[in-house]
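Annex B. Sample input.
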Amino acid sequence: MNDTVMKNKRKKKQIIILSILLVTSGSIWLFSRNRNLVESLYSQSFYPFISKILRFGLGWIPFSLGDILYSVLIVYVLWKTIKLIIIIYRKTYGSIRIKYILYRFIIQLLILYIIFNIFWGLNYNRRGIAYQTGITRVKYTKEELQHINGLLLKEVNICKQGMMRNQMQTTSNQQLFKNAVNAYRTASVYYPFLKYNYKSVKPSFFGLAGNYLGFSGYYNPFSGEAQVNTTIPEFLRPYVVCHEIAHQLGYAKENEANFAGYLAATGSGDTSFMYSAYLDLFIYANGNLRRTDSVVAKSLLQQLSPSVKDDIETMKTFYKKYENPVEPIITWIYSRYLESNEQPSGMLSYSEVVSYLISYYNKYGKISG
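Annex B, continued. Sample output.
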Protein backbone atom coordinates (compact mmCIF):
# COMPACT_ATOMS: atom_id res chain seq x y z
CA MET A 1 0.00 0.00 0.00
CA ASN A 2 1.60 3.25 -1.14
CA ASP A 3 1.88 6.50 0.83
CA THR A 4 -0.88 8.22 -1.16
CA VAL A 5 -3.45 5.55 -0.27
CA MET A 6 -2.40 5.68 3.39
CA LYS A 7 -2.70 9.46 3.48
CA ASN A 8 -6.15 9.35 1.89
CA LYS A 9 -7.33 6.77 4.42
CA ARG A 10 -5.94 8.83 7.30
CA LYS A 11 -7.56 11.98 5.95
CA LYS A 12 -10.90 10.20 5.55
CA LYS A 13 -10.68 8.90 9.11
CA GLN A 14 -9.94 12.40 10.41
CA ILE A 15 -12.95 13.82 8.56
CA ILE A 16 -15.23 11.10 9.98
CA ILE A 17 -14.01 11.68 13.56
CA LEU A 18 -14.34 15.45 13.23
CA SER A 19 -17.84 15.12 11.72
CA ILE A 20 -19.03 12.83 14.53
CA LEU A 21 -17.70 15.19 17.19
CA LEU A 22 -19.21 18.24 15.50
CA VAL A 23 -22.62 16.59 15.19
CA THR A 24 -22.49 15.43 18.82
CA SER A 25 -21.45 18.88 20.05
CA GLY A 26 -24.13 20.55 17.96
CA SER A 27 -26.78 18.18 19.30
CA ILE A 28 -25.75 18.92 22.88
CA TRP A 29 -25.91 22.65 22.20
CA LEU A 30 -29.39 22.40 20.66
CA PHE A 31 -30.58 20.28 23.58
CA SER A 32 -29.24 22.87 26.03
CA ARG A 33 -31.49 25.55 24.52
CA ASN A 34 -34.60 23.87 25.98
CA ARG A 35 -34.56 24.39 29.76
CA ASN A 36 -37.56 22.13 30.35
CA LEU A 37 -35.90 19.21 28.59
CA VAL A 38 -32.60 19.80 30.36
CA GLU A 39 -34.36 19.91 33.74
CA SER A 40 -36.44 16.76 33.23
CA LEU A 41 -34.20 14.56 31.07
CA TYR A 42 -30.77 15.59 32.32
CA SER A 43 -30.69 17.43 35.67
CA GLN A 44 -33.34 15.26 37.34
CA SER A 45 -32.69 12.01 35.48
CA PHE A 46 -29.33 11.35 33.85
CA TYR A 47 -27.06 13.65 35.86
CA PRO A 48 -28.04 12.32 39.35
CA PHE A 49 -27.22 8.82 38.09
CA ILE A 50 -23.77 9.66 36.75
CA SER A 51 -22.87 11.93 39.68
CA LYS A 52 -23.76 9.22 42.21
CA ILE A 53 -21.56 6.73 40.36
CA LEU A 54 -18.63 9.15 40.49
CA ARG A 55 -19.12 9.90 44.19
CA PHE A 56 -19.63 6.24 45.08
CA GLY A 57 -16.57 5.19 43.07
CA LEU A 58 -14.16 7.90 44.23
CA GLY A 59 -15.61 9.36 47.42
CA TRP A 60 -14.00 6.75 49.70
CA ILE A 61 -10.48 7.67 48.53
CA PRO A 62 -8.98 10.01 51.18
CA PHE A 63 -7.26 12.29 48.66
CA SER A 64 -8.52 14.11 45.60
CA LEU A 65 -8.03 12.29 42.30
CA GLY A 66 -9.47 15.35 40.59
CA ASP A 67 -6.63 17.50 41.92
CA ILE A 68 -4.12 14.95 40.64
CA LEU A 69 -5.84 15.12 37.25
CA TYR A 70 -5.60 18.92 37.28
CA SER A 71 -1.92 18.71 38.27
CA VAL A 72 -1.15 16.40 35.35
CA LEU A 73 -3.09 18.69 33.01
CA ILE A 74 -1.18 21.76 34.22
CA VAL A 75 2.16 19.98 33.68
CA TYR A 76 1.02 18.83 30.22
CA VAL A 77 -0.03 22.34 29.16
CA LEU A 78 3.22 23.83 30.46
CA TRP A 79 5.25 21.20 28.65
CA LYS A 80 3.41 21.82 25.38
CA THR A 81 3.77 25.57 25.78
CA ILE A 82 7.52 25.34 26.45
CA LYS A 83 7.92 22.99 23.50
CA LEU A 84 6.11 25.47 21.23
CA ILE A 85 8.24 28.38 22.47
CA ILE A 86 11.43 26.39 21.74
CA ILE A 87 10.20 25.57 18.24
CA ILE A 88 9.42 29.22 17.53
CA TYR A 89 12.74 30.36 19.02
CA ARG A 90 14.73 27.89 16.93
CA LYS A 91 12.59 28.63 13.88
CA THR A 92 11.99 24.94 13.20
CA TYR A 93 8.23 25.34 12.75
CA GLY A 94 8.53 24.84 9.01
CA SER A 95 8.79 21.11 9.55
CA ILE A 96 5.56 20.99 11.58
CA ARG A 97 2.27 20.14 9.94
CA ILE A 98 0.22 23.16 10.97
CA LYS A 99 -3.03 21.65 9.71
CA TYR A 100 -2.55 18.53 11.81
CA ILE A 101 -1.82 20.56 14.95
CA LEU A 102 -4.93 22.65 14.34
CA TYR A 103 -6.96 19.48 13.75
CA ARG A 104 -5.78 17.93 17.02
CA PHE A 105 -6.52 21.14 18.90
CA ILE A 106 -10.08 21.27 17.56
CA ILE A 107 -10.61 17.57 18.32
CA GLN A 108 -9.42 18.03 21.90
CA LEU A 109 -11.69 21.04 22.40
CA LEU A 110 -14.72 19.17 21.06
CA ILE A 111 -14.05 16.13 23.24
CA LEU A 112 -13.64 18.37 26.29
CA TYR A 113 -16.90 20.18 25.46
CA ILE A 114 -18.80 16.89 25.11
CA ILE A 115 -17.43 15.28 28.28
CA PHE A 116 -17.87 18.45 30.33
CA ASN A 117 -21.51 18.84 29.31
CA ILE A 118 -22.39 15.17 29.73
CA PHE A 119 -20.78 14.99 33.16
CA TRP A 120 -22.09 18.31 34.50
CA GLY A 121 -22.12 21.35 32.19
CA LEU A 122 -25.71 21.02 30.97
CA ASN A 123 -26.81 21.97 34.49
CA TYR A 124 -26.05 25.58 33.54
CA ASN A 125 -29.14 25.42 31.34
CA ARG A 126 -31.64 23.87 33.75
CA ARG A 127 -34.64 25.58 35.34
CA GLY A 128 -33.04 25.19 38.73
CA ILE A 129 -33.60 26.06 42.35
CA ALA A 130 -36.20 28.80 41.84
CA TYR A 131 -38.39 26.37 39.90
CA GLN A 132 -37.95 23.67 42.55
CA THR A 133 -38.74 25.95 45.50
CA GLY A 134 -41.68 27.54 43.72
CA ILE A 135 -40.33 31.09 43.84
CA THR A 136 -40.04 33.68 41.11
CA ARG A 137 -37.01 35.90 41.04
CA VAL A 138 -38.04 39.50 40.59
CA LYS A 139 -36.19 42.79 40.90
CA TYR A 140 -36.38 43.75 44.54
CA THR A 141 -36.86 47.24 45.98
CA LYS A 142 -34.47 49.10 48.26
CA GLU A 143 -36.96 48.66 51.09
CA GLU A 144 -37.03 44.88 50.60
CA LEU A 145 -33.25 44.79 50.52
CA GLN A 146 -33.01 46.86 53.67
CA HIS A 147 -35.53 44.59 55.41
CA ILE A 148 -33.65 41.41 54.48
CA ASN A 149 -30.45 43.03 55.78
CA GLY A 150 -32.16 43.56 59.11
CA LEU A 151 -33.40 39.97 59.31
CA LEU A 152 -29.98 38.56 58.46
CA LEU A 153 -28.33 40.91 60.94
CA LYS A 154 -30.52 39.57 63.72
CA GLU A 155 -29.79 35.93 62.88
CA VAL A 156 -26.04 36.55 62.60
CA ASN A 157 -25.89 38.10 66.07
CA ILE A 158 -28.06 35.37 67.62
CA CYS A 159 -25.98 32.55 66.11
CA LYS A 160 -22.69 34.12 67.17
CA GLN A 161 -24.00 34.58 70.69
CA GLY A 162 -24.98 30.91 70.76
CA MET A 163 -21.56 29.80 69.53
CA MET A 164 -19.83 31.83 72.23
CA ARG A 165 -22.17 30.59 74.94
CA ASN A 166 -21.58 26.95 73.97
CA GLN A 167 -17.82 27.55 73.56
CA MET A 168 -17.74 25.66 70.28
CA GLN A 169 -14.41 23.99 69.57
CA THR A 170 -12.42 23.74 66.36
CA THR A 171 -13.83 21.07 64.04
CA SER A 172 -11.66 18.68 62.00
CA ASN A 173 -12.05 18.63 58.24
CA GLN A 174 -13.66 15.20 58.25
CA GLN A 175 -16.12 16.19 60.96
CA LEU A 176 -16.90 19.38 59.04
CA PHE A 177 -17.66 17.38 55.89
CA LYS A 178 -19.76 14.90 57.88
CA ASN A 179 -21.76 17.74 59.44
CA ALA A 180 -22.40 19.19 55.98
CA VAL A 181 -23.79 15.85 54.80
CA ASN A 182 -26.04 15.81 57.86
CA ALA A 183 -27.19 19.35 57.00
CA TYR A 184 -28.29 18.19 53.56
CA ARG A 185 -29.95 15.13 55.05
CA THR A 186 -32.01 17.38 57.31
CA ALA A 187 -32.82 19.77 54.46
CA SER A 188 -33.96 16.93 52.18
CA VAL A 189 -36.85 16.15 54.54
CA TYR A 190 -38.46 19.42 53.47
CA TYR A 191 -36.72 19.72 50.09
CA PRO A 192 -36.36 16.24 48.54
CA PHE A 193 -34.33 17.69 45.67
CA LEU A 194 -31.50 18.38 48.16
CA LYS A 195 -31.07 14.70 48.97
CA TYR A 196 -27.36 13.90 48.98
CA ASN A 197 -25.93 10.36 48.86
CA TYR A 198 -22.34 9.10 48.78
CA LYS A 199 -20.14 11.83 50.26
CA SER A 200 -17.20 12.95 48.15
CA VAL A 201 -15.87 16.14 49.76
CA LYS A 202 -12.13 16.58 50.21
CA PRO A 203 -9.54 19.21 51.17
CA SER A 204 -7.96 20.84 48.13
CA PHE A 205 -4.31 20.18 47.30
CA PHE A 206 -4.17 23.78 46.15
CA GLY A 207 -5.35 25.51 49.32
CA LEU A 208 -2.40 27.90 49.55
CA ALA A 209 -2.51 28.61 45.82
CA GLY A 210 -6.25 29.18 46.19
CA ASN A 211 -5.61 31.97 48.65
CA TYR A 212 -3.48 33.76 46.07
CA LEU A 213 -5.85 33.00 43.18
CA GLY A 214 -8.99 33.91 45.11
CA PHE A 215 -10.97 30.66 45.45
CA SER A 216 -12.30 28.93 48.56
CA GLY A 217 -13.58 25.78 46.89
CA TYR A 218 -14.41 24.21 43.55
CA TYR A 219 -16.16 21.23 42.01
CA ASN A 220 -14.41 18.85 39.65
CA PRO A 221 -17.03 17.69 37.12
CA PHE A 222 -14.75 14.97 35.74
CA SER A 223 -14.28 13.18 39.07
CA GLY A 224 -17.43 14.28 40.91
CA GLU A 225 -15.35 15.49 43.86
CA ALA A 226 -15.97 18.69 45.79
CA GLN A 227 -12.75 20.36 46.90
CA VAL A 228 -12.64 22.79 49.82
CA ASN A 229 -9.85 25.24 50.61
CA THR A 230 -9.48 24.37 54.30
CA THR A 231 -6.94 27.13 54.94
CA ILE A 232 -9.58 29.88 54.95
CA PRO A 233 -10.93 31.15 58.31
CA GLU A 234 -12.87 28.42 60.09
CA PHE A 235 -16.17 30.30 60.34
CA LEU A 236 -16.32 30.53 56.52
CA ARG A 237 -15.82 26.84 55.82
CA PRO A 238 -19.29 25.39 56.64
CA TYR A 239 -21.04 27.51 54.02
CA VAL A 240 -18.29 26.85 51.47
CA VAL A 241 -18.74 23.09 51.93
CA CYS A 242 -22.51 23.42 51.51
CA HIS A 243 -21.95 25.51 48.36
CA GLU A 244 -19.68 22.86 46.81
CA ILE A 245 -22.08 20.02 47.66
CA ALA A 246 -24.78 22.05 45.90
CA HIS A 247 -22.60 21.97 42.77
CA GLN A 248 -22.43 18.18 43.14
CA LEU A 249 -26.22 18.07 43.20
CA GLY A 250 -26.35 19.83 39.85
CA TYR A 251 -26.66 23.50 40.76
CA ALA A 252 -24.05 24.82 38.35
CA LYS A 253 -24.77 28.55 38.54
CA GLU A 254 -23.06 30.24 41.45
CA ASN A 255 -26.17 32.04 42.69
CA GLU A 256 -28.11 28.77 42.69
CA ALA A 257 -25.35 26.85 44.47
CA ASN A 258 -25.24 29.66 47.02
CA PHE A 259 -28.98 29.44 47.64
CA ALA A 260 -29.10 25.62 47.79
CA GLY A 261 -26.17 25.67 50.20
CA TYR A 262 -27.87 28.39 52.22
CA LEU A 263 -31.08 26.36 52.56
CA ALA A 264 -29.10 23.35 53.76
CA ALA A 265 -26.91 25.29 56.19
CA THR A 266 -29.65 27.42 57.77
CA GLY A 267 -32.02 24.49 58.13
CA SER A 268 -29.40 22.20 59.66
CA GLY A 269 -29.85 23.15 63.32
CA ASP A 270 -26.05 23.34 63.54
CA THR A 271 -25.18 26.80 64.88
CA SER A 272 -21.79 26.99 63.16
CA PHE A 273 -23.39 26.21 59.78
CA MET A 274 -26.21 28.67 60.36
CA TYR A 275 -23.78 31.39 61.38
CA SER A 276 -21.53 30.79 58.37
CA ALA A 277 -24.47 31.01 55.94
CA TYR A 278 -26.20 33.98 57.58
CA LEU A 279 -22.93 35.92 57.77
CA ASP A 280 -22.11 35.29 54.13
CA LEU A 281 -25.59 36.32 52.99
CA PHE A 282 -25.48 39.41 55.20
CA ILE A 283 -22.18 40.46 53.60
CA TYR A 284 -23.71 39.99 50.13
CA ALA A 285 -26.93 41.80 51.05
CA ASN A 286 -25.13 44.63 52.81
CA GLY A 287 -22.81 45.06 49.83
CA ASN A 288 -25.81 45.28 47.51
CA LEU A 289 -27.49 47.82 49.80
CA ARG A 290 -24.31 49.90 49.95
CA ARG A 291 -24.58 50.49 46.20
CA THR A 292 -27.98 52.17 46.64
CA ASP A 293 -27.83 53.59 50.17
CA SER A 294 -24.39 53.54 51.76
CA VAL A 295 -25.59 55.38 54.89
CA VAL A 296 -28.20 52.75 55.80
CA ALA A 297 -25.83 49.93 54.87
CA LYS A 298 -23.14 51.32 57.17
CA SER A 299 -25.67 51.80 59.96
CA LEU A 300 -26.72 48.14 59.76
CA LEU A 301 -23.10 47.04 59.65
CA GLN A 302 -22.45 48.88 62.88
CA GLN A 303 -25.24 46.92 64.59
CA LEU A 304 -23.32 43.67 64.32
CA SER A 305 -22.05 42.37 67.64
CA PRO A 306 -18.36 43.05 68.45
CA SER A 307 -17.48 39.36 68.01
CA VAL A 308 -19.06 39.29 64.54
CA LYS A 309 -17.16 42.45 63.60
CA ASP A 310 -13.99 40.70 64.76
CA ASP A 311 -14.75 37.80 62.40
CA ILE A 312 -15.26 40.18 59.48
CA GLU A 313 -11.95 41.88 60.27
CA THR A 314 -10.28 38.46 60.45
CA MET A 315 -11.69 37.66 57.01
CA LYS A 316 -10.53 40.98 55.54
CA THR A 317 -7.05 40.60 57.02
CA PHE A 318 -6.80 37.04 55.69
CA TYR A 319 -7.67 37.97 52.11
CA LYS A 320 -5.57 41.13 52.19
CA LYS A 321 -2.55 39.04 53.15
CA TYR A 322 -2.77 37.18 49.85
CA GLU A 323 -3.48 40.10 47.51
CA ASN A 324 -1.30 39.94 44.40
CA PRO A 325 -1.26 41.14 40.75
CA VAL A 326 -2.31 37.72 39.40
CA GLU A 327 -5.60 37.41 41.29
CA PRO A 328 -7.45 40.16 39.34
CA ILE A 329 -6.46 38.43 36.09
CA ILE A 330 -7.76 35.05 37.31
CA THR A 331 -10.94 36.75 38.54
CA TRP A 332 -11.44 38.41 35.13
CA ILE A 333 -10.95 35.09 33.32
CA TYR A 334 -13.38 33.28 35.61
CA SER A 335 -15.88 36.08 35.27
CA ARG A 336 -15.80 35.65 31.48
CA TYR A 337 -16.30 31.92 31.97
CA LEU A 338 -19.39 32.57 34.09
CA GLU A 339 -20.75 34.99 31.50
CA SER A 340 -20.37 32.35 28.79
CA ASN A 341 -22.35 29.90 30.94
CA GLU A 342 -25.69 31.61 31.46
CA GLN A 343 -24.45 34.04 34.16
CA PRO A 344 -24.28 37.47 32.49
CA SER A 345 -23.31 39.20 35.74
CA GLY A 346 -20.03 37.32 35.91
CA MET A 347 -18.52 37.35 39.40
CA LEU A 348 -21.48 39.38 40.65
CA SER A 349 -23.56 36.23 40.14
CA TYR A 350 -22.54 35.10 43.61
CA SER A 351 -24.29 38.07 45.24
CA GLU A 352 -27.46 37.47 43.19
CA VAL A 353 -28.35 34.86 45.81
CA VAL A 354 -29.88 37.82 47.69
CA SER A 355 -32.69 38.04 45.14
CA TYR A 356 -33.47 34.35 45.71
CA LEU A 357 -33.62 34.95 49.45
CA ILE A 358 -35.92 37.97 49.12
CA SER A 359 -38.24 36.03 46.80
CA TYR A 360 -38.17 33.09 49.20
CA TYR A 361 -39.03 35.36 52.14
CA ASN A 362 -41.86 37.02 50.20
CA LYS A 363 -43.37 33.59 49.49
CA TYR A 364 -42.75 31.73 52.76
CA GLY A 365 -42.34 34.52 55.31
CA LYS A 366 -39.02 33.20 56.63
CA ILE A 367 -35.33 33.34 55.75
CA SER A 368 -34.19 29.93 56.99
CA GLY A 369 -34.24 26.67 55.14
